[in-house]
Design brief:
3-stranded parallel sheet; two-stranded antiparallel ribbon; about 15% strand
């Protein structure tokens, strides 16, 4: 932070060069409201408290670019490998924490210890930490919910599945039983897009690959299963 002071009689003129922090994010939501709110709130706080720090956000959305999450993921990795200083603050999916960990700072060396107190007992201690290194902090948490059809479970005296193995076994059993009654419309498991990561990590323990590759592997797995 550089400040220059000039005195003209009784008038004090201060010319200050503020710190500019460049941030980047990618979202499928056109408004990108969650990111813009964070940036605007910080800049307002900075101005009110004379921090002389400004956050500038480059936000890629479906409205202003053709960049997909896979493109964004690859672009970040390229910038990391080139040791680019284009961006100071990077928003990324926490599933990429392992992939990017070697390029990212250990935040515990830069942020007071007490700031982590609210995160150590939550999911952030798993999703934002790799090899004891805090490589990020959460700004939001996505929650995936798996619904079950109580009618079918009761009909065949089955418990609610608690593991992927139980889900597969129970689904197979109910599917086969329903086929005996010519019920060909039943879908044993209709997974959300984000569930593929959890499912594949569970059985193949694959890490450090792109979402496109994950999708391809899942499709192949389903086809031959």
């Amino acid at each position: 932070l550089l400040s220059f002071f000039f005195f003209f009689e009784k008038l004090l003129v201060i010319i200050t060069r503020c710190i500019l922090i460049n941030a980047v994010a990618c979202t499928e939501i056109e408004s990108g409201e969650i990111y813009s709110n964070i940036i605007n709130k910080f800049n307002k706080y900075s101005q009110e408290n004379n921090l002389d720090i400004t956050l500038k956000l480059t936000l890629f959305t479906s409205d202003n670019s053709t960049v997909s999450f896979e493109d964004y993921e690859s672009s970040l990795e390229y910038l990391f490998q080139m040791r680019s200083q284009k961006y100071d603050l990077i928003f990324y999916d926490s599933v990429l924490s392992i992939k990017y960990s070697n390029y990212l700072l250990n935040l515990k060396e830069w942020i007071p210890e007490k700031h982590f107190d609210e995160y150590v007992n939550g999911i952030a201690s798993q999703s934002c930490v790799y090899n004891g290194k805090w490589v990020g902090l959460p700004i939001m948490v996505d929650i995936t919910v798996l619904y079950y059809n109580e009618e079918y479970l009761n009909k065949y005296s089955k418990e609610v599945p608690k593991t992927w193995e139980e889900l597969i076994d129970t689904s197979k059993y109910i599917l086969n039983e329903e086929k005996r009654f010519n019920n060909t419309n039943i879908v044993p498991y209709n997974g959300l897009f984000c569930c593929k990561n959890i499912f594949i990590y569970k059985y193949f323990k694959i890490v450090n690959i792109s979402s496109t590759t994950l999708t391809l592997i899942l499709l192949i797995f389903i086809y031959f299963y």
